[in-house]
TrEMBL record:
Residues 47-249 form the Type IV / VI secretion system DotU domain. This is DotU family type IV/VI secretion system protein. Keywords: Membrane, Transmembrane, Transmembrane helix. It comes from the Bacteria. InterPro entries: T4/T6SS_DotU (IPR017732), T4/T6SS_DotU_sf (IPR038522). Coiled coil: none annotated. Pfam families: DotU (PF09850). The chain crosses the membrane at residues 227-247.
Length: 268
């Protein structure tokens, strides 16, 4: 718990000790067990998005929970995960401004995900948020959009951070617009504008998701026809029937000639 204290975790005393660490690990395991699809990594083209994918999945999961029995343990678990994520992306040679905005947005996403629930709104979380622990700020509703506007002026430099902020906006970050009457319209405007900026950086989307014929080699071959087992018997029957009909017609013609000859002899 010394590391937690250094980062400013001051929840109730029951969260300080080996038992709290055990509950935090148990909480993390349980949340991963019920949402296994968010354990997958390496699917995002953006390293910042890829590193935060488990926490983004957890944020979606938390928004659907009706209750949580150990919020201090949950707080400690998320705090440790954010610390781990930042240690992972720090060696990736990003600008300090990108990393700060990334950490700030990640904390804001998790704070709003918890505070939007009935069980988190009136919990200890409101007294000690992740933003206050990592950035010494009690509310990030204003600064997030300030950072977004500032970084949007240099989108190439901050592309990965802007893409992560865009995903968080799509996941429901509202900030200062959460309590405004026209907040939904303003949020949609910001998302649309940011999407246009990022679309220019990524280029036009592909017309086809896959190229099904790209790895197919053309070959000149024909499918072998499989004849049924009764085919020879049918062919034999047709040959015999044809032969019989020809023989019968020939025999009838000869018979008529013979009868005509006999009839001529008898008339002499």
């Amino acid at each position: 718990m010394n590391e937690a204290k250094e980062h400013g975790i001051y929840f109730e005393s029951k969260a300080e000790g080996p038992a709290s660490v055990q509950r935090a690990r148990h909480t993390e395991i349980e949340l991963q067990r019920v949402t296994p699809e968010f354990q997958m990594r390496g699917l995002a083209w953006n390293p910042l998005c890829d590193a935060a994918m488990p926490l983004m999945g957890l944020a979606i999961r938390l928004q659907t929970l009706d209750r949580h029995d150990d919020i201090p343990a949950l707080y400690l678990s998320i705090h440790n995960q954010i610390t781990t994520v930042m240690e992972e992306v720090r060696p990736l040679d990003y600008e300090p401004g990108s990393l700060k905005a990334y950490s700030y947005t990640l904390c804001l996403l998790m704070d709003e995900s918890v505070m939007s629930t009935s069980w988190g709104k009136h919990s200890e979380w409101s007294q000690r948020s992740l933003l206050s622990a990592f950035h010494q700020e009690s509310w990030g509703g204003e600064k997030f959009f300030t950072l977004l506007a500032r970084m949007s002026t240099a989108p190439t430099k901050y592309q990965h951070a802007l893409e992560f902020m865009y995903l968080c906006l799509c996941m429901g970050i509202k900030g200062k617009y959460g309590n405004q009457s026209n907040g939904a319209e303003e949020m949609q405007r910001i998302i649309t504008q940011l999407h246009g900026i990022l679309r220019q950086l990524r280029g036009a989307p592909p017309r086809h998701l896959t190229e099904p014929l790209a790895h197919i080699t053309s070959r000149n071959y024909h499918l072998k026809r499989m004849w049924p087992l009764w085919t020879p018997w049918v062919l034999a029957a047709l040959v015999l029937t044809t032969a019989y009909m020809v023989y019968n017609l020939r025999l009838s013609a000869i018979t008529r000639e013979v009868l005509a000859s006999l009839d001529g002899i008898l008339k002499l």
